[in-house]
């Protein structure tokens, strides 16, 4: 394992020992991705006058983010992968303060799906965007008492996400989980679920029951190259349910085409502000919230419209259906 040159805990990135500024805090997970980014993050943080906090264990990023929000920090960078971003957002929620810091995502993880969806491709680019980048207010997802920025994936894919190797995650992003799922699906019975899709107008709400192999709930996740993407600023969740019965047709090279075919049999899609997923066999379903595991028999999901200010890259397009917004 790479041995960090920077001690864990809280230091001024320029090493001066001067009074710590609360304007900008970068929270760095030294063991995300290829574990070789800490020195670069340290250097860029020193140049930009950031306070650097290096995590020592799971949960530290959440705590540091809560402290930063409580002390009125203007900008908080999450340097790590999707899991680190997820912890930082949970920390903002924990703080209970009204005005959260703006979030900057510094892609230093394995998949970096959230950063890539926001048009941020490298560590250096992220730090320069802190100076000049646009800031947008994005919806935040809530799943029971946890937050998610990007996506919540339930069923077999969540379990497969734990087994998916780093190289596939780098190459395919979230699709790597889908491919892994399809690979292992032959032994899977699916989960009997009741899914309540709630619209603001209750009369148009839908209750759906069936055996589900995969449930994708996207906030700003691009699941694929086409329409199966979520709009991060529309106050809606993009819900895609893949019925178990349709899994045999999802084999080989055509699997992903089938998944992203809007009219495919056995694929249910809705855009709603709120959705509840109940397990009908008294066993918890495993979910992956931005890559972090959550098990629940009943999951209550909603969007908090425009809840979080986020720095975005030049190529960020809020509407994934807009021309030129494809991957
Ligand atoms: N110092 C640390 N030692 C061990 N684990 C840590 C430490 N700091 C954070 N973690 C944990 O590391 C886990 C993985 O981090 P993260 O998701 O950011 O990286 P990744 O898995 O490489 O990237 P991605 O999720 O984008 O594929 C998180 O669950 C986080 O809580």
UniProtKB/TrEMBL annotation:
Ranges for region Disordered: 1-21
Domain of life of the source: Archaea
One term of GO molecular function: ATP-dependent diacylglycerol kinase activity
GO CC, alphabetical: plasma membrane
Family annotation (Gene3D superfamilies): 2.60.200.40, Probable inorganic polyphosphate/atp-NAD kinase, domain 1 (3.40.50.10330)
GO biological process: phospholipid biosynthetic process
UniProt cross-references to InterPro entries, sorted A to Z: ATP-NAD_kinase_N (IPR017438), Diacylglycerol/lipid_kinase (IPR005218), Diacylglycerol_kinase_cat_dom (IPR001206), Lipid_Phosphate_FormReg (IPR050187), NAD/diacylglycerol_kinase_sf (IPR016064), YegS/DAGK_C (IPR045540)
Keywords, in A-Z order: ATP-binding, Kinase, Lipid biosynthesis, Lipid metabolism, Magnesium, Metal-binding, Nucleotide-binding, Phospholipid biosynthesis, Phospholipid metabolism, Transferase
Cofactor(s) required, per the database record: Mg(2+)
Record-annotated DAGKc domain positions: 19-147
PANTHER family in alphabetical order: LIPID KINASE YEGS, SPHINGOSINE KINASE
NCBIfam families on file: YegS/Rv2252/BmrU family lipid kinase
Protein name: YegS/Rv2252/BmrU family lipid kinase
The organism of origin for this protein: Natronosalvus rutilus
């Amino acid at each position: 394992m790479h041995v960090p040159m920077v001690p864990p805990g809280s230091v001024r990135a320029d090493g001066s020992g001067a009074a710590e500024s609360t304007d900008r805090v970068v929270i760095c997970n030294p063991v995300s991705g290829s574990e070789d980014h800490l020195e670069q993050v340290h250097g860029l943080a020193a140049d930009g006058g950031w306070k650097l906090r290096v995590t020592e264990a799971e949960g530290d990023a959440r705590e540091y983010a809560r402290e930063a929000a409580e002390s009125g920090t203007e900008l908080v960078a999450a340097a790590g992968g999707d899991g680190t971003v997820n912890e930082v957002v949970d920390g903002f929620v924990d703080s209970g303060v009204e005005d959260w810091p703006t979030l900057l995502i510094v892609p230093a993880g394995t998949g970096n799906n959230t950063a890539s969806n926001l048009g941020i491709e490298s560590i250096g680019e992220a730090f320069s965007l802190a100076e000049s980048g646009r800031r947008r207010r994005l919806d935040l997802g809530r799943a029971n008492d946890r937050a998610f920025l990007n996506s919540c994936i339930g069923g077999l894919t969540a379990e497969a996400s734990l087994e998916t190797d780093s190289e596939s995650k780098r190459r395919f992003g979230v699709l790597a989980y889908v491919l892994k799922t399809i690979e292992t699906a032959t032994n899977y019975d699916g989960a009997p679920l009741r899914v309540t899709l709630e619209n603001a107008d209750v009369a148009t709400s839908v209750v759906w029951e069936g055996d589900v192999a995969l449930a994708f709930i996207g906030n700003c996740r691009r699941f694929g190259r086409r329409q199966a993407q979520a709009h991060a600023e529309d106050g809606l969740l993009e819900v895609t349910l893949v019925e178990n019965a349709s899994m045999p047709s999802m084999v080989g090279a055509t699997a992903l085409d089938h998944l992203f075919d809007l009219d495919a049999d056995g694929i249910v899609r809705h855009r709603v502000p709120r959705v509840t997923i109940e397990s009908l066999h008294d066993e918890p379903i495993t979910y992956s919230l931005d890559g972090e595991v959550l098990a629940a028999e009943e999951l209550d999901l909603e969007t908090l419209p425009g809840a979080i200010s986020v720095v975005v890259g030049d190529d960020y397009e809020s509407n994934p259906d807009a021309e030129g917004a494809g991957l």
